[in-house]
Design brief:
The chain has about 240 residues and is mainly α. It folds into 2 domains: about 70 residues, Homeodomain-like (Arc Repressor Mutant, subunit A, Orthogonal Bundle); about 160 residues, Tetracycline Repressor, domain 2 (Orthogonal Bundle), CATH 1.10.357.10. About 75% of the residues lie in helices and about 0% in strands. The radius of gyration is 22 Å and the shape is elongated.
Length: about 240
């Protein structure tokens, strides 16, 4: 009996990764089809039935993997807030929040670039499609903006600790908002959009460094400003 049970366990252990890979392939196929239809036909005019047909799956399969159309658009971002939160919270005593942020960007980009070339192109193409769809719809832009709030909060909290200020003080909040907006706009900037091929990790990190240098300079300029009387704003 023990041998029989062990055999079943071995079979389950072998088949589980296969099922997971098949599930991931299905999710990828559905999301790719959805993004292409959103970009071509418009987000609101694209139906679940059309997405299912384009992905060659049943409509029920689409909704099992992505319960709402918004999930199709916003799910599976490799730059996840959970990993950023962990990276900033676990930074060393010698690291600033901006150091940790830069390392998180570099690590995530390196992980993406380690994938097969066809996967790299797919991920980049998906980011382009997603940005186009979101920027074409006021409601989606608002939804995306609301999603950035969590990123801003964790960065502001870290910066507040670095600067010995409350996280909701002007400098941490302003720097955090600038960081999130700047890193997001990398993918929408003319310099990157007009390229004929996806930029390399090295090229992207050079732009990340420009954003972070901009933030460092902004923090320094505010921190070096002469003290103001209570209730008086600098001019």
């Amino acid at each position: 009996m023990q041998v029989y049970v062990s055999g079943i366990n071995a079979s389950v252990a072998t088949s589980a990764p296969l099922r997971e890979r098949k599930k991931q392939r299905t999710r990828t196929s559905i999301q790719q089809a959805a993004l292409e239809l959103f970009a071509r036909d418009g987000y609101r005019d694209t139906t679940i039935a059309a997405i299912a047909a384009a992905a060659d799956v049943a409509p029920r399969t689409v909704t099992v993997h992505f319960p709402t159309k918004e999930d199709l658009l916003f799910a599976a971002d490799p730059f996840a807030v959970e990993t950023l939160t962990a990276r900033i919270r676990n930074r060393s005593d010698k690291e600033t929040t901006l150091d940790a942020l830069r390392d998180w960007m570099a690590t995530t980009m390196t992980d993406l670039s380690s994938e097969a070339p066809e996967n790299q192109k797919r991920v980049w193409h998906q980011r382009e499609l997603r940005a186009h769809v979101i920027n074409s719809d006021d409601t989606l832009r608002a939804r995306a903006r609301a999603g950035y709030y969590e990123y801003e909060q964790i960065i502001a909290t870290g910066l507040g600790q670095d600067l010995n200020q409350p996280a909701d003080s002007l400098v941490p909040r302003l720097a955090a908002i600038t960081a999130v907006a700047g890193l997001r706009e990398l993918y929408e900037s003319r310099e990157i959009r007009e390229r004929n091929a996806p930029p390399s990790t090295v090229e992207l990190l050079a732009w990340v460094d420009r954003v972070i240098d901009f933030i460092r300079a902004g923090i320094a300029s505010l921190e070096d400003a002469p003290p103001q009387k209570h209730g008086q704003f600098p001019v």
